[in-house]
Amino acid sequence: MCPKSSQRRKGTRKIATLQCDCWARAAKDVLLIKKLKCETKAKQKFVTKHKNDCIKAFGTCKKMEDDAIELIHTCMHDHANELINQTAAGLHEAAEKGGRAEFQRRLAELGMEF
Q: For 63, how many CA atoms within 13 A lie in the half-sphere containing its CB?
C-alpha cells in the first residue's frame, strides 16, 4: 500500500521505504501492461466518435422537440381554430382525453386496471 501524502510529509525512513516499494510496484505494473501490448488509442477514438454521434443525435432530437413545441403553440393559436369551432382549451381537452384512453388501453393489454 502506498503511503498517503500526510504520511510522506513525516519524512521517516519507514515512510521513505514504503514510498520506494510503492514506486517499484507501480513500475512493475507498467512493465506488465506494456508487455500486453495494449492498444487503447483505437478504442479511445471509437468511444470518442460514439460519444460525438450521441451528442449530435441528442441535438437533432432536441431541435425536433423544440420545433414540435413551436408547432403546437402555432396550432393552438391558429385563426383556423375558430373556423372549425375549436379553442385552445378544446384542443387540450381532446388531446388529454385521447392520451388517457391510450394509456388505459395499454394498461389493459398488460392486464392492469387504472
A: 6
Q: What's the pLDDT at 99?
A: 86
pTM over the 0.85 mark: no
Spatial distance between the Cα atoms of 16 and 7, rounded to a whole number of angstroms: 10
The closest of 13, 97, 46 to 105, measured between CA atoms, is 97
Distance of CA 20 to the CA centre of its chain: 42
Q: How far is CA 61 from the centre of its chain?
A: 14
The answer to whether 107 and 113 have CB atoms below 8 angstroms apart is: yes
List, in order, residues 6 or more apart from 77 with CB less than 8 Å away: 88
The separation between the first and the last C-alpha atoms of the chain, rounded to the nearest angstrom, is 58
Cell of 67: 420545433
Q: What are phi and psi of 37, to 5 degrees?
A: 50, 50
